[in-house]
Amino acid sequence: MFDNHETQSITKLLVFEFITGGGFSQAALPDSLATEGLLMLEVMIEELALVPAIQITVLLDWRFNQLNLPLNINAVVVAKDQSVYEILPALIEQADFIWPIAPEMDSILKKITALVEDQGKGLLNSSSEAVAICSDKLITAQVLQNNAIKAVNTIQLDGFSSDLIGQWVIKSKDGVGCLNNYLISSEYEFEQVNNKIQCKSDYIIQPYVKGDSLSLSCLFREGKAWLLCCNNQQVEIKRGSFKLNACEVNITSNNMEKYQCLIDLISQAIPGLWGYVGIDIIQPELNDPWVVEINPRLTTSYVGINQALDFNVAAAVLDMLDKEHVIKKMCNKQITVSITA
After folding, report:
1. At residue 58, does pLDDT exceed 50?
2. Per-residue pLDDT at 72
3. DSSP reduced 3-state for 260
4. CB distance 206 to 152 below 8 Å
5. SS3 state of residue 323
6. pLDDT per residue over 138-150, tens digit each?
7. 325 φ/ψ angles, rounded to the nearest 5 degrees
8. Is the pLDDT of residue 136 over 60?
9. Rounded to the nearest 5°, which phi and psi values hold at 316?
10. pLDDT of residue 103
11. 243 pLDDT exceeds 90?
């Protein structure tokens, strides 16, 4: 058995994007997640198809079985009456490396990552230990703060007893994107949201920090980090709910050196981060950024990076198995990725 990121020749690669790959084969697809998942999968396939000498297998939900794939990519369709977990272990066994793209909610990404590790297969993602930290926003904040990294103050909802002064955000510990995020501005709004949450230990509350909602697209490897670009998240707040409408990928920022220093610190605090990682931050007008959460997987911003930088992220991740990657950006454009369900 080898280390899951150990250098070895890749011949067979399994790509498993959970939403479009059968994770909801027996249920209705969540519209917003399906839209983002399909965008990521299509770009990933385009990038991987350019890498020579690898055999690529992609899992597809039965509702995506008409997806137009390059000739060198094999599709395994998950049927309507079939659970993806029935076929996933055998597919992992047949592959050399597995690249999972899955949400953190309900420990989905952690379970898939652990399944790959348990079979001793190569993993093109962060370790299950790092995923476990990042999948819980309360633990993430604690780990970052313990390492002198500025993270938004985070309290478990059932332990919240402070006077409600100002605006606060209630969200699930393992939520993805803007799902189950609520902005509250009064005791009345707090009680409304609090009363409809059944398991309060699964939720956190944070002070609402004013500033630009940004994300950092990064590559991580063995305690080191490389900043690809900074992105603006067009988040709409309507009737106390958040909605991500678009990502402006590769925006111009005067804080790039500061952000590189930030991810350097994060790479030391969570050394199991590996491959592509997205980090959500709030950038106040004058002060240093606040880390909101860490996504140990591909994010929606990834969709625009190739077009913005002329940089093949998927190929770079494969290269990282052999060496520390040198980031060569062949162009410098800003690309908007729209999120429409």
Report:
1. yes
2. 82
3. helix
4. yes
5. coil
6. 999 999 999 999 9
7. -85, 140
8. yes
9. -65, -40
10. 92
11. no
Tracing tokens 């990657």 back to the chain, one arrives at: 325
DSSP annotation of 208: P
Q: Round to whole Å and give the CA distance between 305 and 249.
A: 7
- Label the pairing between strands 212-221 and 181-184: unpaired
Strand pairing report for 290-295 and 275-283: antiparallel
CB proximity list for 116: less than 8 A, separation 6 or greater = 4, 92, 98, 100, 122, 123
Taking all residues of the chain, what is their mean pLDDT, rounded to a whole number?
Answer: 91
Write out the E strands in 190-258.
203-207, 212-221, 224-238, 241-249
pLDDT, tens digit (0-9, with 9 covering 90-100), for 148-164: 999 999 999 998 876 77
Contact 69, 62 (CB under 8 A): no
Distance CA 149, CA 100 (A): 28
Q: What local confidence, expressed as pLDDT, does residue 104 receive?
A: 92
Give the side-chain half-sphere CA count within 13 A for 340: 3
Beta strands, E only, 91-222: 97-101, 122-123, 155-156, 168-172, 181-184, 203-207, 212-221
Residue with token string 């058995």: 1
CA atoms within 13 A on the CB side of 262: 27
- Quick one: tokens of 104? 């953190």
> Under DSSP, is residue 305 helix (H, G, I), strand (E, B) or coil?
helix
Radius of gyration, alpha carbons of the chain: 20
285 compared with 99, residue with greater pLDDT: 99
Angle at 210 between CA 208 and CA 214, to 5 degrees: 105
Q: Contact at 8 Å (CB) between 118 and 94?
A: no
Q: Is the pTM of this model over 0.85?
A: yes
